[in-house]
Design brief:
By secondary structure, the chain is mostly helical. It contains 6 helices and 2 strands. β1 and β2 form a beta hairpin. The longest helix is centred in the middle third of the chain and has 18 residues. The protein is elongated and about 75 Å long. The chain starts with 6 loop residues before the first strand and ends with a helix.
Length: 160
């Protein structure tokens, strides 16, 4: 038990070595519970603490997470189905996922779609109500300068 690693490096991220493989993989951006369970089950590492595995086994798990075709994980479990450029079902993690999301949002802005416009002005994109939610920044209520101006004008009228 003393040879258990505290932190396991996978995909340029530190993962808690005390957790089972299924739970530890969810520490990677782009890997959810169902995908992590599918990878662990198909590789035979269910209920195995990830800190007890050697470096070769950890590298195999990392490669399987990045390349789900090797494990025959179904397409509906992947996070980028029918990719716009290739048409394939991909699964992206960490910085690759962030970069693709950024490019998708940039493309929506460039073509002038409704979703792109909502992204540009910082409002919710998926139809949520905005009367009481998303009230942060300069969009909230009446501006302070206008309140002060009205207070000073109102105060002057009362003196006369």
């Amino acid at each position: 038990m003393s040879d258990t690693k505290e932190v396991v490096r996978m995909a340029r991220t530190g993962i808690d070595g005390q957790k089972p493989v299924e739970k530890a993989l969810t520490g990677l951006k782009g890997v959810g519970e169902m995908y992590a369970n599918a990878v662990a089950e198909s590789m035979g590492y269910s209920n195995t603490v990830i800190g007890n595995l050697d470096d070769d086994e950890i590298d195999e798990i990392e490669e399987a997470v990045k390349n789900p075709d090797s494990l025959e994980i179904p397409g509906w479990l992947r996070n980028r189905r029918k990719d716009r450029e290739t048409g394939e079902d991909l699964h992206l993690i960490e910085s690759d996922l962030e970069l693709k999301e950024e490019f998708d949002i940039r493309r929506l802005k460039e073509i002038g779609s409704y979703k792109g416009w909502r992204h540009e002005i910082g409002l919710p994109v998926r139809g949520q109500k905005t009367q009481s939610s998303f009230r942060s920044g300069s969009k909230i209520g009446v501006s302070r300068a206008r309140l002060q101006r009205e207070a000073s004008e109102g105060g002057g009228e009362e003196e006369e």
